[in-house]
Amino acid sequence: MKYIIANWKMNPESWKEAKAIVLGIKDAGSRAKQVATVICPPTLFVPDVGRLVRSPKIRLGAQDAYFEKSGAYTGQISPSMLKDCGVSHLIVGHSERRREGDTDEIVQKKLKSALSLGFTVIVCVGEKERDEHGFYLAHVEAQLASALKGTSRKDVSRVIIAYEPIWAIGKSAARAATAEEIEHMMLYIRKIIVGIHGKPAAKHIRTIYGGSVDVKETPVLIGIPYVDGLLVGRESLNPKNFSEIIRIADRA
Ligand code: PGA
Known about the structure:
The chain is of the alpha/beta class.
């Protein structure tokens, strides 16, 4: 089973456009046999997206949630509220949230809270830049070790690690990561998790890739060993191309 996850970020600007995207990917998502499609719209659109997609193949996700269940936290959305709206998947630690102040400690709290409520959690890790000395490896290891602190071996089956090298994300990305770089990091992440939770955890680990994923690159990306899926930003707003990504992953 592959995961194709749409991270819409703060897009689109209206429900009318959001509805058109959902309707445009519904067919490919519900027909796929080997792919679980997860749509993570802006929180405001979550309930309506949930009402539009009633296929067990298409899951509802959210881009972030606070770690407390309720209380005096102006402007925050709690994981319990999302759960009540039918959300089953949650992204934590996206680099754009980390940039806005989510520390490793906050990511750890968000993961713990979401796991305790039964979510499947997509934990994003990734370095800002690559250096010749390999410090980027230590950076990813530290992010993972911190996020997973306090989780159990059983939790691993509800955690999906998304490797998103920041230098390869978005319109201004210098270049895409190579297949070799991605495979190497997928293996490295698995090694770290085995180090934390022991060898039996290995068979439950899922690692996905994100960073300027487009329909053209999908056949190569989805074929990389240990890539269990893709986290797609900009291209997930284009229903035709995103549907094609789902179909390619389904055939892979
Ligand atoms: P991108 O975004 O596909 O637009 O590079 C990916 C992400 O940040 O999740």
